[in-house]
Recover the amino acids of this structure.
């Protein structure tokens, strides 16, 4: 018996070492790429790089239109994907009856999470650009990426809700709460950390997507900004920017990496560093929000 226990312990240690090795390979690979981009593009990371439009001259080129376009596209993506995805996940997990229809929906949602992004681009090209007449605009790009990450948000929401013990629901119902009150005051607060993690993972995927954005006609060179969402005159809020042409960070990087000059390669490295920093900032925000939410629930 002791020999058998010792054998299993050795296997546990071996498995832990293999897991640690796999983790270190991933972390070190990412760190090496991140440091390489930082070293190659650090000389271009100044205020002018963030406030200048793209240019034929590498020393004068910047990412102003690219990072503004990425920010606006991500705002539209979140505005559509987050409420729809969370609502669909809550409905499927808490309200929908368990029958062949819901089983079919679940299978399709799971399959859609693995569909190549170019397929979503082709779908958006025919539906949003031509059928709905939205054109090659920020709104089309945001809706396309919203469709792309919607299955991820739905699956993450359902998994987070499933992790809530059934006794929480039973206790709420025993005190006379309705189903919506149980979902509103118990299920959603307790599962908010997992839901938020899924949302951030989806947004991090969307911000780096290139294929569907190119498919719907994003510009590779743009030297102007969309109209401002806020105005000094009534009604103070403008939606003209939704139908404006745009570009995003990955396309700007692709444009620069396709040029042979070393200066443009440095620009692409600097833009890649900024894009990774934006993604890391999104994940850091998610960690902070999870901490706050869990602390509030604890108290």
């Amino acid at each position: 018996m002791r020999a058998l226990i010792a054998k299993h312990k050795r296997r546990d240690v071996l498995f832990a070492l293999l897991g640690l090795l796999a983790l270190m390979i991933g972390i070190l690979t990412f760190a090496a790429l991140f440091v390489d981009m930082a070293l190659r593009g650090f000389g271009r990371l100044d205020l002018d790089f963030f406030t200048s439009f793209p240019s034929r001259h590498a020393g004068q080129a910047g990412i102003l239109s690219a990072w503004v376009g990425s920010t606006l596209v991500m705002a539209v993506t979140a505005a559509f994907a987050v409420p729809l995805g969370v609502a669909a996940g809550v409905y499927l997990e808490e309200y929908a009856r368990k029958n062949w229809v819901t089983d079919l929906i679940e299978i399709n949602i799971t399959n859609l999470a693995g569909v190549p992004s170019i397929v979503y681009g082709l779908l958006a090209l025919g539906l949003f650009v031509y059928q709905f007449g939205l054109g090659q605009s920020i709104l089309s790009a945001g809706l396309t990426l919203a469709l792309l990450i919607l299955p991820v948000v739905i699956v993450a929401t359902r998994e987070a809700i499933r992790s809530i013990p059934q006794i929480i629901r039973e206790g709420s119902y025993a005190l006379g709460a309705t189903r919506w009150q149980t979902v509103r005051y118990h299920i959603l607060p307790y599962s908010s950390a997992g839901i938020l993690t899924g949302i951030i993972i989806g947004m991090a995927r969307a911000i780096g997507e290139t294929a569907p954005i190119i498919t719907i006609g994003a510009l590779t060179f743009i030297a102007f900004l969309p109209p401002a969402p806020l105005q000094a005159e009534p009604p103070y809020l403008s939606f003209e920017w939704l139908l404006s042409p745009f570009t995003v960070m990955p396309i700007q990087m692709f444009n620069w990496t396709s040029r042979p000059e070393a200066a443009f390669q440095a620009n692409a490295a600097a833009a890649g560093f900024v894009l990774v920093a934006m993604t890391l900032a999104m994940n850091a925000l998610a960690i902070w929000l999870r901490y706050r939410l869990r602390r509030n629930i604890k108290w």
